[in-house]
């Protein structure tokens, strides 16, 4: 049996051209007509949620070490979510989680009670409070 050569098809497979609609029964359902602004997670096993967490301090970058505020936030989020990725930029922590049991209000309550305090500058310990939003989507820039 002769095999096809240089036709850009794997053996025994038909090439299919897809589209950018959501994954059926996982993201937006069967219609695929409402995917703008919705996170389409082709590599995750559960539906993701993006949280924007803002602190009342100038920066959290010095709080990224062991025992710092960022670690405490990640531990509290981990109680009811699986953190896939996070980014700390100034006073904001951006989280992408899957399988979350939190909505914005419940996550804010979990992060603010009991209150966290900064640890990097012991001479000037600052209580930290957080606001949470999941309505802004996931943006990389």
What does this structure look like?
With 141 residues, the chain is an alpha+beta fold. It has helices spanning 69-77, 104-112, and strands spanning 48-55, 82-89, 92-98, 116-117, 127-128, 130-133. The protein has a domain at 48-133: Alpha-Beta Plaits. The model has no long low-confidence stretch (mean pLDDT 80).
Main attributes?
141 residues, alpha+beta, Alpha-Beta Plaits, four-stranded antiparallel beta sheet, two-stranded antiparallel sheet, 2 helices, 22% strand, elongated
Q: Helices and strands in order, then pairings?
A:
Elements: E1 48-55, H1 69-77, E2 82-89, E3 92-98, H2 104-112, E4 116-117, E5 127-128, E6 130-133
Antiparallel strand pairs: 1-3, 1-6, 2-3, 4-5
What oligomeric assembly is this protein in?
Answer: single chain
Q: How is the main sheet built?
A: 4 strands, antiparallel
Strand order of the largest sheet: 2-3-1-6
Shape: elongated
CATH architectural group of the domain at 48-133:
2-Layer Sandwich
Span between termini:
52 Å
CATH class of the domain at 48-133: Alpha Beta
Radius of gyration: 21 Å
Topology order in helix (H) and strand (E) letters: EHEEHEEE
Question: Approximately how much helix is present in the residues?
Answer: 10-25%
Give a short summary of the structure.
It contains two helices and six strands, in the order βαββαβββ.
